[in-house]
Amino acid sequence: MRRLSEDRTKVLFEKLAKYIGPNIKQLIERPDGIYCFREQKNRVYYVSENILKFANTMPADNIISLGTCFGKFTKTGKFKLHITALNYIAPYAQCKIWLKSSAEQQFLYGNNVTKAGLGRISENCEKYQGALVYSMSDLPLGFGVAARSTAECKMVDPLTVVCFHQSDIGEYIRSEDDLL
Questions:
Q1: Which of 36, 83, 110, 173 is the most buried (most CB within 10 A)?
Q2: Where is the PUA domain (predicted)?
Q3: How far apart are CA 48 and CA 45, in angstroms?
Q4: What is the pLDDT of residue 132?
Q5: How far does Cα 31 stand from its chain's mean position?
Q6: Distance (Å, rounded) from C-alpha 107 to C-alpha 165?
Q7: Contact 80, 115 (CB under 8 A)
Q8: What is the average per-residue pLDDT within 13-17?
Q9: Nearest CA among 2, 170, 28, 178 for reference residue 86
Q10: Which tens digits make up the pLDDT trace of 56-87?
C-alpha cells in the first residue's frame, strides 16, 4: 500500500468535500486515533495509522486489502466513491435527503428520486451538491447529487427529479465482486 500522490489526494478530497464539506479533517483526526488514506491497485483505503504500522511489517504482496475501501480511481483519473464508505461519511454529511417508504425500493434499484418520493430535505442543499440519501427512520441508503436546491424542491411538480442516484446499499448484492 502506498501513499496517494498530491494529484490523487486533491481529487479524493474534492470528491469528499462534495458530500461532507470541511468535515474532512474530522474524518482523518478522530477521537479514537489518526486515520489516513492509502492506495493499492487504484483503490483507496481508509485505515487507522496503528493498523498501518502493523501492516508495514508484512510483505506488500501478501496484503490484499487493508481498512475500508472508500472508492477507486478510474482510468481517466476521476474518483468513484464506493458504497462501503457510506457509514464513515454519513455522520458528517451536509446535505441530506430523506425518502418516503414508497420510494426507498426504487432508489435501491438504482433509480433517481422524484419529488413524490421526497420525505424531507436539508435546508441548505444547493443544486448539484453531493447528498446522502436516508430512509425516514434515518438509515443511510446511499449517495446522490441534488438535482434541485431546497427552495426549488418546494415548487416543482411531483414527477420532477430532485436527486440523481449515484450509489446505494443495494450494490452490496448487485456488485459484490467489484466492491473489494
A1: 83
A2: 95-170
A3: 10
A4: 95
A5: 21
A6: 7
A7: no
A8: 93
A9: 170
A10: 888 877 787 788 999 999 999 999 998 989 99
CA dist 109 and 84 (Å) reads 17
Q: Which amino acid is at 34?
A: I
What pLDDT does residue 88 have? 93
Distance (Å) of CA 136 to CA 4, 20, 95, 101: 37, 20, 15, 7
Percent of the chain's residues with pLDDT above 90: 65
Contact in structure between 64 and 43 (CB atoms under 8 Å): no
Cα distance between residue 45 and residue 43, in whole Å: 7
